[in-house]
Design brief:
Radius of gyration: 16 Å
Shape: globular
Number of domains: 1
Mean pLDDT: 84
Number of helices: 6
Distance between the termini: 18 Å
Low-confidence stretches: 1-6
Strand content: 5-15%
CATH class: Alpha Beta
Number of strands: 6
CATH topology: Lambda Exonuclease, Chain A
């Protein structure tokens, strides 16, 4: 395994959207990711997601915050995220809430966000209010707890791991 991507015990270490997405999908995946294990580079599903991202909404520009990359932001500070998934997931809305929090911390008056699912032609609106801010802050705290743990969290039940690029690591014989 590679060296950690950052100091795991440093409370000032910035968390990106992928950290929050992995927290919701699988805490073990988050823990492994922060320690430098990155099988996503060999995943056909990840490659497919990148193609969907690159070929939809082509007139937009990514917003690179350093620790996170937002797909695009429209007038009025509405965050947009594109997903290749055919099913909306809480991890997707949590990721958008996290982006709202990051922009708000930079002084941007965020209005909310939208998750786009081009393969099923659906969108999910993500409100940004006091409750959403609290959820985003709670997710950050939970992610930091997982990251700081000395051992990996337990793996999920195998059916929940379908399509995960970490499957071989967690379930390899």
């Amino acid at each position: 395994m590679n060296q950690p991507a950052h100091d795991l015990n440093d409370e000032t270490t910035q968390l990106g959207g992928v950290h929050i997405k992995y927290l919701y999908h699988c805490p073990r995946q988050l823990w492994l990711y922060t320690r430098g294990y990155r099988p996503e580079q060999r995943s056909d599903l990840v490659a497919f997601g990148e193609v969907v991202d690159d070929t939809t909404y082509t007139r937009r520009r990514d917003i690179d915050l350093g620790e996170a990359k937002i797909d695009w932001v429209t007038t009025g500070a509405v965050i947009h995220e594109t997903k290749s998934s055919r099913a909306p997931a809480e991890a997707h809305t949590a990721q958008v809430r996290h982006y709202c929090l990051l922009l708000e911390r930079r002084g941007v008056a965020v209005r909310g966000g939208t998750v786009h699912y081009p393969l099923i032609r659906r969108t999910t609106d993500v409100p940004w209010d006091t409750a959403a801010r609290a959820e985003a802050e709670d997710a950050e705290a939970r992610a930091r707890t997982v990251i700081a743990a000395p051992t990996a969290p337990a793996r999920l039940a195998r059916p929940q791991c379908r399509g995960c690029s970490y499957l071989d690591y967690c379930w390899g014989d």
